[in-house]
């Protein structure tokens, strides 16, 4: 896949990681289609892309609303553009324990992170298949590999994204469509970063490399990669780690009660 001549659709491109990915690939020469719910913020991304001499189109998209997903796909088709790379970056990152999450919040998280992602892949992938080539990048999370009790619904939604990537990869590989699952962790949005973090530009370079090398999964650090592998094949380790954490928390609370 040649980035310089590609058309790249990036969701959640009005801010943060999505915005910076859009600017990065636009600087590389790609034609970028940026999509998000907030039109005014999308215009800010357009200004950043124009400032680096890039080419971009902004389209409104709400992944929790199937009508806007269909409208975006129709607008792209009518324009005559063909998406070569789809980056499913937009997500509802509402992170709470299940008992602290309302029914409406559960619905919003699942509709955006799972159903919307499925539906957009369903609408964009056929063009890639007809072109005999394309790339779908699903931005998942470490929480999807090792579910976290403090973010139950979010973790579950990202585990579903992992499953989507794996199944879709097997389905589309014979049709020469590459599917990359990204085990996202905390990124530094500027050059300032804490120990172990990478910034967004470093991540963009890693993602670009994964596309060129036809990789199917992207971890930002080797230790996390092997730890997630270990959790998958030896889940008892993950359970033991969580039990120890819970035990320490409980003992700390008990000690505080005794001191008072």
Protein described:
The protein is an alpha/beta fold and 260 residues long. It has 2 domains: 3-220, 3-Layer(aba) Sandwich (Rossmann fold), CATH 3.40.50; 228-260. It contains 9 helices and 7 strands, in the order βαβαβαβαβααβαβαα. The protein has a 7-stranded parallel beta sheet with strand order 3-2-1-4-5-6-7, sandwiched between helices. α7 links the parallel β6 and β7. α1 runs parallel beside α2 (39-51), α3 (66-79) packs parallel to α4 and α8 (222-233) crosses α9. The protein is globular, with a radius of gyration of 20 Å. The mean pLDDT is 88.
Summarize the structure.
One of its GO terms (cellular component) is membrane. The chain is an alpha/beta fold and 260 residues long. It is 55% helix and 14% strand.
Write out key terms for the chains shown.
alpha/beta, 2 domains, Rossmann fold, seven-stranded parallel beta sheet, SDR_fam, 260 residues
Query: Sheet with the most strands?
Result: 7 strands, parallel
What coarse outline follows from CA principal-axis ratios?
globular
In the predicted model, the low-confidence regions spanning at least 5 consecutive residues are none
How many extended strands?
A: 7
Radius of gyration: 20 Å
CATH fold annotation of the largest domain = Rossmann fold
Strand order of the largest sheet: 3-2-1-4-5-6-7
Residue share in β-strands: 5-15%
Helix content: 40-55%
Distance between the termini: 64 Å
Task: Please render the helix and strand layout as text.
Elements: E1 7-11, H1 16-27, E2 31-36, H2 39-51, E3 55-60, H3 66-79, E4 85-88, H4 103-130, E5 134-139, H5 142-145, H6 152-172, E6 177-183, H7 200-212, E7 217-219, H8 222-233, H9 235-259
Parallel strand pairs: 1-2, 1-4, 2-3, 4-5, 5-6, 6-7
């Amino acid at each position: 896949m040649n980035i310089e001549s590609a058309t790249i659709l990036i969701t959640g491109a009005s801010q943060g990681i999505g915005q910076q990915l859009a600017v990065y690939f636009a600087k590389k020469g790609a034609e970028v289609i940026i999509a998000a719910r907030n039109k005014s913020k999308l215009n800010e991304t357009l200004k950043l892309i124009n400032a680096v001499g890039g080419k971009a189109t902004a389209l409104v998209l709400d992944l929790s609303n199937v009508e806007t997903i269909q409208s975006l796909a129709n607008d792209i088709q009518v324009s005559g553009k063909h998406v070569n790379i789809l980056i499913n970056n937009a997500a509802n990152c509402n992170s709470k324990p299940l008992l602290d999450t309302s029914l409406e919040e559960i619905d919003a998280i699942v509709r955006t992170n799972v159903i919307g992602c499925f539906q957009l892949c369903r609408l964009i992938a056929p063009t890639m298949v007809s072109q005999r080539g394309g790339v779908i990048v699903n931005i998942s999370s470490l929480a999807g590999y090792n579910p976290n009790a403090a973010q139950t619904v979010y973790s579950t939604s990202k585990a579903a994204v992992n499953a989507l990537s794996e199944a879709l990869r097997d389905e589309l590989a014979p049709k020469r469509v590459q599917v990359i699952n990204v085990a996202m962790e905390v990124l530094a949005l500027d050059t300032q970063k804490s120990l172990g973090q990478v910034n967004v530009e470093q991540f963009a370079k890693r993602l670009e490399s994964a596309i060129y090398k036809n990789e199917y999964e992207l971890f930002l650090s080797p230790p996390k990669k092997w730890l997630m592998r270990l959790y998958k094949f030896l889940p008892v380790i993950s359970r033991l780690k969580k039990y120890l954490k819970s035990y320490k928390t409980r003992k700390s609370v008990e000690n505080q009660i005794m001191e008072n």
